[in-house]
Write the structure tokens for this entry.
Amino acid sequence: MNADRMTWRERFNSAAPIIALSILTFPIIIGFIWIFISTFSHTTYGLEPQGRLTLENWSFLWKDPKIWDVTLNTIILSVGQTIGVVALSALSGYALSRLSFPGRKTFLAMTLILHSFPAVTLLIAIYFVLRWINRIPILGNDIPIIGGFGYNTLGGVILVQLALQLPLGMWLMKGFFDNVSWDLQRAALIDGCSHFRAWWQIILPVIRPGVAALAIFSFVTGWGSFLIPYTFITDQENSVLAAYLRGMMGETAPVSYGTVAAVGLFQLIPVMIFFIFTQEYLMNIFSGGSKGGT
Amino acid sequence: MAVTTRTATAAPPKEGVLRKLRSASIGFWFMSPAVILVVLFFFIPSIIVFGLSMTNLSTSTGFQNYDWVGFENYHKIFTHPDAGPTALRTIFYVGATLALFNVGMALVVALLSTHIPRRAGFIFRALWLLPRLTPSVIYIMMWKFMAAASPYGILNRYFPFLGGQNLLPDAPWVFVILTNGFIGASFGMILFASAIESIPRDFMNAALVDGCNAWQRIRYVILPALRWPLLFVTTYQTLSLLTSFEQIFILTDGQFGTEVWALWSYHRALSNYWGNFQWGFGAALAVVLVVIGAVAAVIYMRFFQFNQLVQEPLVEAL
């Protein structure tokens, strides 16, 4: 009997942390279960759907033409931002890691400080920078697809989000480059590669996982971004999914939350796909990003 | 190419003035796009925000008729009836979220998830990462529905003693702290968990052999090893909580007495119901945060042994 009690106790000891964790994690899981259930029901009382399950909430996909405009904008925003962040971080990360040039140390120090500097406090001033860009011919507001790089254009939002993510990206990329063996690069340079070619053909392929991680992270943040598009785009045709959703939330009573939840889930799908397949990478970004990637 | 025999740690060759020049110009080309953006969206805005805070620029003055008013905006802040309460609210919000979630909960989850089978621990940590990755509008929508009035709201449905009305106006801070906390906890959690996992097994075993119970093990083995990450997470997250307002903006929009300093500034300058954007006054409010942010950022970069991270690159010794 004594032995029985011991094993029971041991079992409890090993199960206790899991039980405790499950309880703590419960609110997160509930939130996602709710959003899933309510998209397929007319109304939900708590987590219980009332009446029969339905697909009616998803009718916005074919009834509301605006959703596709908004989705397209969101894709342009997140893809544009991702390309920008990855390209610029990879370029400058390489220089910071592998080249010596005057001002390198200062710039590196600055990057690190900017990385922890809260950029949202600069939104008011960025508004003026964007308005100033508007005045530049063509570049300001006459570019097809993204509209330009000024205030009230998709390009402007891309530029701001890209800039605000640069310190993190550069710092991470520098960390990735630091880990690439010197011999590889030396060999390439001695064989007559230019720095640019060594960067593009030799080093970048080696750090592909790191580049992928940064790209995924950047895409996910761009896809879900709300504050900057909401602040810097005024007209609805140019807005992104998050801003669109927020507009819907404001005007609906809890009764029709089903539709709102459906739009929400629609926006959540790509994030979930990335999440399921790439958590490990993303986990690295968060720890690497904070420790400086070295 | 006699230099090829040099080891990577050797000093750069003396004849390399020309090479240095070339390397500098290559560095320039690699850096310039990023530098332009950093200047355009960090440096120039920092200057603009200071400049703006010295003006009375607003929608009503327009871009032509504004005046330089010196430090009047700052004077206005310090004598403003909302300034004191807003500052207190901000301190409360940062302190409570930090203690309960960004450090407290992060530590608890990290401890628990490193004391269960690896795979399970990883799944839980991944789940905690979800709120951070979920688009904020959707995430807040979930919480709004939790708080919604009976019979729809989740909390009211299963806990009838809560009264059945919408819980958000009654307990705004609970939800503000919960929403921000569930996002914020993952940052500390990841750092703490990796720090715990890097504690040598021998230390743990030694503690076990000495008859330590779980609490003693945490107190005397794990926590001392976490001193550095704890300090880092606390300082870093203080700063980001101080200036983050996106979740509060979506959740309550500053209603029910939840307007924190950053949101106050945002409302005044960029988003308010009266349509009069007071850029000057808003900028002055932002400058307060910019200064705190800049000083704090510089301090901990000094503090966290920054110099080790910026050694000269070795490739030029080629």
User: Anything to note?
Assistant: Chain A has two domains: 2-54, 65-291. Residues 289-294 of chain A have pLDDT under 50 and may be disordered. The beta strands of chain A are 41-45, 48-53.
